[in-house]
Design brief:
375 residues, mainly alpha, Glutaredoxin, two-stranded antiparallel ribbon, 2 strands
């Protein structure tokens, strides 16, 4: 995403916007993150400096052309009142999403779609915002249904790929429910189609592959899952990062892929190289620690966790590193060490401002606590 903001095509916006890049997990940023309900990275916001009102909101990456449209929309939201019922509802949806009220935002996005004429220019973007908002609101069935409703008449473009990806991700949250099985049957071939699109952002492309693996696993087709996984890892290994941001993004995808395939050993050499290349980046240590944990290299996992903890600057990163270390001590059969580290992780998790994120980590830590009791 930083590469998009540095593009020369955005130079004309320099005097019209103040660029602010916030670390999602840094403690000094937590009040802002909580105030705007940020649950997804990257999240893009245009804020009115007078009152911090959100005039445009987007979850996920964007191309340079999409970023230009996003900035123009945000600027219009500050200076121009919407003139149609659909535009009014869409803007209310963006404001609510910018406060983290995704279920309420979904109501407004649906109102916008209901009021809009068939040729409304904002339709695809609104469906994109609606499905991602429903995912964040935990309304997975509605998310998948909205994606399916959108695709028959949608242009085969980047937005189509994002909506299909989000819809399939929602369908993949439930293994056996009839609605989920039916949604996967419709969305999986569309995701396979979207993987071939040339103009899709790499992150969206990788998430399509990730969800195709999960969908194949859920329908009991390990061969298909293996094909998608091998393709994903081949593409990751064939990508040459231009900077540390790209290296981190590739490593996140690499770790996701090997854990889905249950082959963590495949990632260890590349993750070790990244930790060496980014010695001040705690997330590099964290990714290596997690891969080492799953590969049952418990001593390496403990050591990498400690290296990351010396650098970490936020409660989520600290909690995750401590959790990995506690799990590694469990793997080594060291009950006392595991309990001590887990208590630290619990204390750290309770300081995470986002309730959803806090609850997620506390559930994982409780499961580890039960593992410790069984030692």
């Amino acid at each position: 995403m930083r590469a998009s903001f540095a593009d020369a095509a955005l130079a004309r916006y320099a005097g019209r916007f103040v660029w602010l890049d916030l670390n999602f997990d840094k403690e000094s940023n937590q009040a802002f993150v909580e105030r705007h309900g940020v649950q997804w990275t990257p999240t893009l916001l245009v804020l009115d400096p007078a009152d911090e009102r959100v005039t445009a909101q987007h979850n996920g990456g964007v191309t340079v052309d999409e970023l230009r449209e996003f900035l123009e929309r945000g600027e219009r939201g500050m200076h121009t009142a919407p003139t149609t019922e659909a535009d009014v509802a869409q803007r209310r949806g963006d404001e609510l999403a910018g406060k983290g009220r995704f279920a309420d935002a979904a109501v407004e996005y649906r109102n916008a779609l209901a009021a809009a004429p068939s040729a409304w220019a904002g339709r695809a973007r609104t469906v994109d915002a609606l499905t991602s908002g429903l995912l964040l609101a935990g309304e997975e069935q509605s998310c998948a249904e909205e994606a399916i409703r959108f695709v028959p008449t949608a242009a085969r473009d980047r937005t189509f790929a994002r909506v299909v990806r989000t819809g399939l991700s929602c369908a993949n949250t439930d293994e056996s429910a009839p609605w989920a099985r039916g949604a996967r049957k419709t969305l999986e071939p569309l995701a396979a189609e979207a993987v071939a699109f040339k103009d899709v952002l790499r992150n969206d492309h990788f998430e399509l592959l990730q969800n195709l693996i999960i969908s194949a696993q859920l329908r009991g087709d390990p061969a298909a899952a293996r094909r998608w996984g091998d393709r994903w890892l081949t593409e990751i290994d064939g990508s040459r990062p231009r900077n540390d941001d790209e290296r981190s993004a590739l490593d996140i995808a690499r770790l996701d892929a090997v854990l889905l395939l249950d082959e963590p050993e495949r990632a260890l050499p590349a993750l070790a190289a990244s930790e060496k290349a980014m010695p001040r980046n705690y997330t590099a240590s964290m990714r290596y620690a997690e891969a080492a944990l799953h590969a049952r290299h418990f001593d390496d996992a403990v050591a990498a966790s400690k290296r990351g903890l010396a650098l970490v600057d936020g409660p989520m990163g600290r909690t995750r590193l401590l959790w990995i270390q506690a799990e590694a001590w469990v793997g080594k059969g060291q009950r006392q060490a595991a309990r001590g580290v887990l208590d630290e992780a619990m204390a750290s998790a309770r300081t995470i401002p986002s309730q959803n994120t806090r609850d997620h980590y506390l559930r994982r830590l409780q499961a580890t606590s039960q593992d410790i009791e069984r030692l």
